[in-house]
Amino acid sequence: MKAAVFHKPGEITYDTMPDPRIELATDVILKVTSTAICGSDLHILSGAVPQKEPMIMGHEFMGIVEEVGAEVKNLKKGDRVVVPFPIACGQCFFCRHQASPACENSNYKHYGPDGDLADQKGAALFGYTDLYGGYSGGQAEYVRVPYADISPRVVPDNMTDEQVLFLTDIFPTGWSAIDWAQLKGGEVVAIFGSGPVGLMAQKAAWINGASRVIAIDPLNYRLEKAKAVNKVDTLNPNEVDVVEAIREMTGGRGADVCVDAVGFEPERSFLEKVKATVHMEVGSMKVLDMAFRAVRRMGTVSIMGVYGSPYDNFPLFRLFDKGITLKMGQAPVLNHIDKLIELVKEEKVVLDDIITHSLPLSQVAHGYDIFNNKEEDCVKVVLKPGS
Ligand SMILES: NC(=O)c1ccc[n+]([C@@H]2O[C@H](COP(=O)([O-])OP(=O)(O)OC[C@H]3O[C@@H](n4cnc5c(N)ncnc54)[C@H](O)[C@@H]3O)[C@@H](O)[C@H]2O)c1
Ligand SMILES: [Zn+2]
Ligand SMILES: [Zn+2]
After folding, report:
1. pLDDT tens string 115-134
2. How far is residue 353's CA from residue 332's CA, in Å, rounded to a whole number?
3. Beta strands of the chain (E only): which ranges?
4. Integer Rg of the chain from CA
5. DSSP secondary-structure letter at 145?
6. By CB distance 3.0 to 4.6 Å, which of 67, 141, 177, 297 could disulfide with 259?
7. Looking at ligand 1, which residue's alpha carbon is closest to its atom 29?
8. pLDDT tens for each residue of 279-289
9. Is the CB of 218 within 6 Å of ligand 1?
10. Ligand 2 center–CA 309 separation, angstroms
11. Residue ranges per structural domain of the chain
12. Do domains 2-169+331-384 and 170-328 have the same CATH topology?
């Protein structure tokens, strides 16, 4: 079959790979109909999330069940499903406690309680390095889905792939960022990063009762997209002092909730890069620093952007003095997906309005180029296998 294969930092190509097969009786094989490129994939492309061996990329995918393992009860050949990106067994302590990103069984080589840099990660993720389980991803014609009775969800026939594809990751992810802050209604929510995850968090903030949603991004075309699809206020950190602007909008207090939808690879100056090298840091926590300052006292900061390094001068004093609540981690997609499918079905939310590019899988290298380099006003790339 054909697939998008990571070889080394900077190199993801369209290659021929062996077809996946049923390995355990609880697996299904999916014929992928649509898949997307995520900001998380860019951390692998850059080398900041390391991977040594060639690997099939992709954790945002959906498709048609092609082959069913002997013990699978909930799915049959021909079912059309979306697949959440964390791989969960459904049986272990964490799966039984609504904490599927901490599943004890799916990442059987590198799971552990520690959360180290080079070992002891949480649940396995599709197409997300050997440390996260070494499973092949779904930017491919076919993909093996383990524990098939647990996570995949059948989607309505009358909806297009594009309408439901983002239930695999970015909509539940943006939703989780807001859910962690438990809005009561009327909150000001500032969302750093207006890429796909930020855009989905903006949608979730409105649905959960925010009175004002502010999008922050250095790329004006992404802010324009946010205004067009989500009717938010916008701030460009290259044009205004974001923290001061947010305080001005909130009687000097700061936002009730700040979401980091950027992560450890924000836009950075040469000097910032030199400083990171001196401190042996990978990437930067500059966006988090800004969120800690922009949030009001006793407010909540949700960290959805990925972080994979220790940071010197972490401002614990500020967090303590302001009494900030911090929530972060891989999104617990399974906790929200059923409710979110209903929201999509009832047309209470539209997800496909963020798509800017739909390409054949054969053009995956170009897809990564424009998404990574923010060219052609790219916001979200959907890939179609078999074309
Ligand atoms: N926790 C999870 O479960 C989960 C799931 C999906 C994605 N993620 C992570 O979320 C992050 C965002 O993903 P995405 O797909 O939207 O990626 P993306 O790279 O398209 O979006 C990041 C956005 O941040 C903006 N940005 C850069 N520097 C900034 C700054 N200083 N201030 C404000 N904005 C800035 C960029 O211009 C870009 O628009 C990534 O780190 C990704 O790995 C986490
Ligand atoms: Zn993703
Ligand atoms: Zn489990």
Report:
1. 988 889 999 999 999 999 99
2. 24
3. 2-8, 11-16, 28-36, 55-56, 60-68, 80-83, 86-87, 124-125, 142-145, 153-154, 188-192, 212-216, 233-235, 255-260, 295-303, 325-328, 357-360, 381-384
4. 20
5. E
6. 177
7. 266
8. 888 888 999 99
9. yes
10. 19
11. 2-169+331-384, 170-328
12. no
- pLDDT bracket for residue 277 (50, 70, 90): confident
Give 285's Cβ-side CA count (13 Å radius): 18
Output the pTM of the full model.
0.97
What's the average model confidence in pLDDT over 203-231?
98
| pLDDT attached to residue 20 | 98
Q: Which fold has domain 2-169+331-384?
A: Quinone Oxidoreductase; Chain A, domain 1 (3.90.180)
Q: Which residues lie across from 154 on neighbouring strands?
A: 81
Alpha carbon of 96 to ligand 3 centroid (Å): 7
Assigned fold of 170-328? Rossmann fold (3.40.50)
Confidence band, pLDDT 50/70/90 cuts, at residue 275: confident
Query: Which residue lies with its CA nearest to atom 17 of ligand 1?
Result: 39
**Nearby residues for ligand 3 (ion, Cβ within 5 Å):** 89, 92, 95, 103, 105
pLDDT in tens, 73-114: 999 999 999 999 999 999 999 999 999 999 999 999 999 999
- For residues 376-385, give the mean pLDDT: 98
Q: Pairing between strand 11-16 and 2-8?
A: antiparallel
8 A C-beta contact, residue 51 and residue 44: yes
